[in-house]
Specification:
It is a single chain. The two termini are 35 Å apart. The chain has 2 domains: 148 residues, ATPase, nucleotide binding domain (Nucleotidyltransferase, domain 5), CATH 3.30.420; 173 residues, 2-Layer Sandwich (Nucleotidyltransferase, domain 5). Helix content is 42%, strand content 19%. The longest helix has 33 residues. The chain is an alpha/beta fold. It is built from 11 helices and 10 strands. β1 and β2 form a beta hairpin. The structure holds 5'-O-[(R)-(carboxyoxy)(hydroxy)phosphoryl]adenosine and zinc ion. The site of 5'-O-[(R)-(carboxyoxy)(hydroxy)phosphoryl]adenosine has 21 residues, from α5 and α6.
Length: 366
């Protein structure tokens, strides 16, 4: 396939607090990111300690046209040179999803090109094929502000959720812990920074569900333990904050180790012919060095390959949506009536898995 024959897809992502657009091409069967623009709204939400849906939706309306233009400009392409428009159609905050989907429908309509409605979680699930050409099947650990899941990725459109959280998402646990000890939003990076100078053994926080046969996650008990410890020694000194952060992070690492190992075992049992299976991590919490090191060591012990895509593709972005669009085009999985697709604030990747009480309650972030 020559450069002229390459498939080029414009991706749009507006499901939470990032307005993003990207052009990804498939040239000679190989993916190439031609542009990847992400405009973070963190500053607009900071004062409120979390994402405010109404503010997010308005910010997407204001920013999206310019971001799409910038993505095309950086890719040095006119709109007419795009072969399809892929857009996150759920799950997420409904206001943002409407803005993204309506824009994508307009672009598809004026260009006469196909519209591809993408599940945001599918974007995360397929990113490792964009960055590392991972082959099916593999395991995905998605740890973000709104989701904590282990998904078996069998193929494009074939996902099985093997584990999920029964209460808070992991990123949410970081954010809530940060708030409890007076660190600003978003909490994850601040807890990680404070932990560097802390004593990880000072507080004996619980390791929720550790040792249990079920493969799921739970983090709300950990948050409660942090609250009790912080209340008992308030007011907190800088050293107290660091010690709580370090003890919390160590509890998280040990919990992940135990919980994830259940699914690694299951994968081994279900796919005995795969000599070196792969675990992929995605989501904002993958930025945490302790979490990454823990997973890497765990994979080594279990004989798994470990892939952590570059951070800008682990967190929310539109390149993963454009790529999911290309994967869907290649697999012949484009809906014919996508122009009538109604955005879905809730949209499980695995429609068969039972919803667990409390999981994904926050919904908007994935
Ligand atoms: O994937 P993401 O950017 O957005 C969605 O949730 O979709 O993830 C954001 C989450 C937040 O909860 C944030 O606190 C957490 O990822 N996070 C971290 C770190 N960086 C971001 N958690 C722990 N350590 C970090 N370094
Ligand atoms: Zn996400």
């Amino acid at each position: 396939m020559s450069e002229q024959d390459a498939v080029r897809v414009l991706g749009i992502e507006t499901s939470c607090d990032e307005t993003a657009a990207s052009v990804v091409a498939l040239v000679d069967g190989r993916p190439r990111i031609l542009s990847n623009i992400v405009f973070s709204q963190i500053e607009a939400h900071k004062a409120f300690g979390g994402v405010v849906p109404e503010i997010a939706a308005r910010a997407h309306v204001e920013a999206l046209d310019g971001i799409v233009e910038a993505a095309l400009h950086e890719a040095a392409l006119d709109l007419g040179a795009i072969d399809a428009v892929a857009v996150t159609a759920g799950p997420g905050l409904i206001g943002g999803l409407i803005v993204g989907l309506m824009t994508a429908k307009a672009l598809a309509s004026v260009t006469g090109k196909p519209l591809i409605t993408v599940n945001h979680l599918e974007g995360h699930a397929l990113t490792a094929r964009l960055t590392d050409e991972a082959s099916f099947p593999y395991l995905l650990l998605l740890v973000s502000g709104g989701h904590t899941q282990i998904v078996l990725v069998r193929g494009v459109g074939h996902y099985e959720r093997w584990a999920t959280t029964i209460d808070d998402a992991l990123g949410e646990a970081f954010d809530k812990t940060a708030k409890l000890i007076g660190l600003p939003y978003p909490g994850g990076p601040n807890v990680e920074r404070a932990a560097k100078t802390g004593d990880p053994k000072r507080f004996a926080f619980p390791r929720p569900l550790k040792g249990e046969a079920r493969p799921d996650f739970s983090f709300s008990g950990l948050k409660t333990a942090v609250r009790q410890a912080a209340t008992a020694i308030a007011p907190l000194s800088d050293q107290d904050i660091s010690d709580i952060s370090a003890s919390f992070q160590t509890a998280i690492a040990e919990t992940l180790e135990d919980r994830v190992s259940r699914s690694l075992d299951r994968f081994r049992n279900e796919f005995p012919a795969i000599a070196v299976p792969t675990l992929i991590v995605a989501g904002g919490v993958a930025a945490n060095a302790t979490v990454r090191a823990t997973l890497m060591a765990l994979c080594k012990t279990f004989g798994f390959a470990f892939i952590a895509p570059p951070m800008n593709l682990c967190t929310d972005n539109a390149a993963m949506i454009a790529w999911a669009g290309i994967e869907r085009l290649r697999a012949g999985l484009v809906e014919n009536d996508a122009m009538h697709f109604v955005p879905r604030s809730r949209w499980p990747l695995d429609s068969v898995a039972d919803p667990l009480i409390g999981s994904g309650r926050r919904g908007p972030k994935a």
